[in-house]
Design a protein that fits this description.
Radius of gyration: 19 Å
Helix content: 25-40%
Distance between the termini: 35 Å
CATH architecture: Alpha-Beta Barrel
Strand order of the largest sheet: 3-4-5-8-9-12-13-14
Order of helices and strands: EEEHHEHEEEHEHEHEEEHEHHEHHH
Strand content: 15-25%
Largest sheet: 8 strands, parallel, barrel
Shape: globular
CATH superfamily: NADP-dependent oxidoreductase domain
CATH topology: TIM Barrel
């Protein structure tokens, strides 16, 4: 049976409160601590498709009905399309969200000098929408600008915004969104909320980072949700910093305190981190970036977990400044 389901903001999309993101398994390199232990030693396309399929099998069994991919996630869209083609009887079918703006450039190498290249232009949107549709066709429900920063110019580009709206009107996707990153994300969200074409709001959904360490957008996301935007939370585990896979010397004290609080909450650390996020009423979907079936099953159990007020208060002691959090994230290696 599906997990708790809800509409994604004011859209007609119905989603489970836990979603599965395929960034960690759609390409051999990603920014997640602990991947060397989680993935096969040989990260061939065949091996990563096998892992993706196992995760999707486990996800639908657990009731997950939202899947997140992107043009820059290596073969993630193609892996998902292949799995969907092989499982036409899944009911209800997963709602699919993808993203455009970054191009994958690592050529299936973990040690590539450049893993992705960003361009938020009208030409890139049209090119990548056609590519996403070629793989996912009518299953592409939500299409998002990937990392729409305030200084990118995309949120003031009237030709681009008009093309986005036209794509939604034409049925190329059913909802439009944007993902946010960085310490200046609040400005981007403000501009997204104001964006309109002929009086029609451009964006239906916002996807943003929110976790135990980075909470700077909490009130803004709650306000956006109250205005009708769907809210998807990414990086609930802070790229692995809030999991047992975090072995960074710089995080030794953080891990020790997190382990104490996980013990107090009688929850595994990864589950505690997700339960913290999903407790927010303005969060429609929190994404699992699981790389193993065991991780995914633990994440699904987080939806039934509760955190005692004393533990939640203690977690507040661990909040980092937005600048520090994003500087730390930028320094994490591709593995």
């Amino acid at each position: 049976m599906p997990l708790a389901m809800r509409r994604l903001g004011n859209t007609e999309l119905v989603v489970s409160r836990l979603g599965l993101g395929l960034a960690a398994v759609g390409r051999p390199g990603y920014i997640t601590l602990g991947r060397a232990h989680d993935l096969p030693a040989l990260r061939t396309e065949a091996a990563l498709y096998e892992r993706t399929a196992a995760l999707l099998d486990a996800a639908v069994t657990a009731g997950v009905r939202y899947v997140d991919v992107a043009r820059s996630y290596g073969r993630a869209e193609a892996f998902l399309a292949r799995w969907l083609d092989a499982h036409p009887a899944v009911a209800p079918p997963p709602t699919v969200g993808s993203k455009w703006g970054y191009r994958y450039t690592a050529d299936w190498r973990v040690d590539a000098p450049l893993h992705e290249q960003k361009e938020l232009s009208l030409a890139r949107f049209r090119e990548q929408l056609a590519q996403s549709r070629a793989l996912l066709d009518d299953r592409l429900a939500l299409y998002q600008i990937h990392s729409a920063t305030a200084d990118s110019g995309a949120l003031e580009d009237q030709a681009l915004l008009a093309a986005l709206v036209e794509a939604r009107r034409a049925g190329a996707c059913r909802a439009l969104g944007l993902t946010l990153s960085g310490s200046d994300a609040r400005r981007a969200l403000d501009r997204a909320l104001a964006a309109a074409i002929d009086g029609e709001r451009v964006f239906d959904v916002v996807q943003a980072t929110y976790n135990v360490l980075e909470r700077s957008l909490a009130s803004d996301l709650a306000a956006a949700h109250a205005e009708g935007l769907g809210v998807i939370v990414k990086e609930a585990h802070a790229n692995g910093r809030l999991t047992p896979g975090n072995r960074r010397p710089e995080d030794r004290r953080l891990r020790a305190r997190l382990d104490e609080l996980a013990h107090d909450a009688t929850l595994p650390l990864d589950r505690l981190a997700l339960a913290f996020v999903v407790a927010e009423p303005w969060v429609d979907v929190v994404l699992s970036g699981a790389a193993t079936v065991v991780q995914l099953q633990s994440h699904a159990a987080a939806l039934d977990a509760t955190i005692a007020p004393a533990v939640r208060d203690a977690l507040s002691e661990l909040v980092e400044s937005s600048d520090l959090y994003w500087r730390t994230r930028a320094a994490l290696p591709w593995t």
